[in-house]
């Protein structure tokens, strides 16, 4: 059986049966119920289902015996297929996402005399078990340490056991604010073919979700197209990627970012394939090391680390809420027109139109606001999982609950990623077109990012003292008078009162 996020012939279930395809039938199932579990962005549904249909076509062309089912649920067509084909062993690559793994394990196939065999997942450089072994050997579990271990293990950007250039990390060179009149490359887009057009009509007809614009749909849906995206990134975007990877500009949705994560998470690209392409380009084209290292760190560092943390933690991690935040998700996360904060309006409009936003938009705009405003982290994680085209359970649990909301109390990050409007003004041009003043934390023009930021620090002052890296920031509260702190709290409460009354 093939999983919708393992669309690669390199997965174990296909590799193990390569020499006897005629005796190893394959089934892929589109479950409509699964598509309705969340209010998924409609482009996410199109991407996954179109990619699955294309992959089934490729398998058939390679002489695999493929059954493709579009069904209400998952179990019914699977049970029928097992009976019809007299399947005695169902081989499946171990699902990455814990909820789907539990669903597979819950299937009662005993009466069908069919055994389920879970095969190793080759979708990551480090298996879950290897990450656990690494983690248990550490006194501290920092991503930077893990990233360096990966560089050494796989000999990436290394020379004589030392990092190329003499440094492991060039992040300090990768935080440049945007200049005026930057000439950014246009992203590579694909016109929907007949299969994708059918899926577009299907998603529109069945009304799985009303979130997100369905068209224009410009994503690739095959391995060949994913490889073209990777090659395009290397040629047109990689040289400037590092320098401006944290920058945000009105109307610029992709900047120099790779747009590769959806294809990695579907299995259309392999992580080492991407890393090697970047490393090869560095050697052959003498590209800036800060851009090359910065991108490889995202794939070899953060992506692998997030998956490892997800594997390491039990189900209780999903309920983490260290700050005990319980405010509801503001309505504008689902409708960008309901906010007059320009940074949020621009970012959320972009997500509605493309199902995509780059890492700083996600972390320092969308996550940051929810954190300082006290939004329930589980509600926010559900929105992220629904809204983004590269979202899966293993991706969003760690990125939102751990990194974005500090809900795990510091397991993943050493301090909360909380910031005022000053950061957004520095790294974007959003504030210049906003009704609020990014400098004000009180008064009629005060930016909500400002009064929420200081209210967040003030109301969690005692808890934040336990985090060494927060002491300098907390010391700044002493400079704010009690009357001003009271006004900041009043503004935060007023904002929530108006937000809740409008919902």
Task: Describe this protein with a few key phrases.
503 residues; Rossmann fold; DNA Cyclobutane Dipyrimidine Photolyase, subunit A, domain 3; 3 domains; two-stranded parallel sheet; two-stranded parallel ribbon; 49% helix
Description:
By secondary structure, the chain is mainly alpha-helical. It folds into three domains: about 10-120, Rossmann fold (3-Layer(aba) Sandwich); about 130-190 and about 220-310, Serine Threonine Protein Phosphatase 5, Tetratricopeptide repeat (Alpha Horseshoe); about 320-500, DNA Cyclobutane Dipyrimidine Photolyase, subunit A, domain 3. The chain has helices at about 10-15, 30-35, 40-60, 75-85, 100-105, 130-135, 145-155, 195-205, 225-240, 260-265, 270-285, 290-310, 340-355, 360-375, 375-385, 395-405, 420-425, 450-460, 460-465, 470-475, 480-500; strands at about 25-30, 65-70, 90-95, 115-120, 160, 160-165. A hairpin with a 2-residue loop joins strand 5 and strand 6 (about 160-165). The mean pLDDT is about 95.
